[in-house]
Amino acid sequence: MTEAGVSPGGPTPPRLLPDEVHRSVGPGTALLRLETTGARQSLLDGAWWPRSRDVEQEIPPLVTALTEHLGPITRVGLDASAWNDIPGRLVVEGRVVHLDSFPIGDDTVLVTRGDNDHFSLMVVPPNTTPEAARTAMARAVRADNVTQAAEILLAELPRPGAPSDGAFQDETAPGR
Fold it and tell me: Residue 171 pLDDT > 50, yes or no?
């Protein structure tokens, strides 16, 4: 690829995630992106791709990552129908984080900083292919996004049983 961003096969499409993310993301990787504008006008403040639906394994790394950028996280709201055994609270790096169960759908997690500062993150299903996950996450974090998480995921993720683009998918591959 040349410095102008043109490969020998033609122009390279814009990539909304940093290049290192495109190289390193594989099945089962957790990613987090937050909107980079201060206005927070889009419907979603970010996107998250957990490795599993195990709350005790997935929420602590998410809270740690969010705390680095947002400050202390006090609550996380999850849909009980989508997650395994939601405890009332977890201790993450010495701080108590309360977990709430809301019927918000398996595509969203609500995060609270302080008393009333809420952030809404789209949750990409753990078994999503890396390319579909990257595409959905990039769309979710656009500053002008006005699309709900469920709609983004429906548009970007292959439907079960739907014919693929001809590519063979190995169902026995690790992470499936």
Answer: no
17 and 135 Cβ atoms separated by less than 8 Å = no
Residues 6+ apart with CB under 8 A from 37: 143
CA 27 to chain CA centroid, nearest Å: 13
**Contact of 48 with 123, CB cutoff 8 Å:** yes
Whole-number Å distance between alpha carbons of 135 and 140: 9
- pLDDT tens-place string over residues 125-166: 998 888 888 889 888 888 788 899 999 999 988 765 544 443
Token pair, residue 10, equals: 């033609």
Task: For residue 72, give both structure tokens.
Answer: 């202390």
| DSSP H or E segment with residue 118 | strand 117-123
Q: In the numeric block, which tokens belong to residue 137? A: 């996450």
Distance of alpha carbon 132 from its chain centroid, rounded?
11
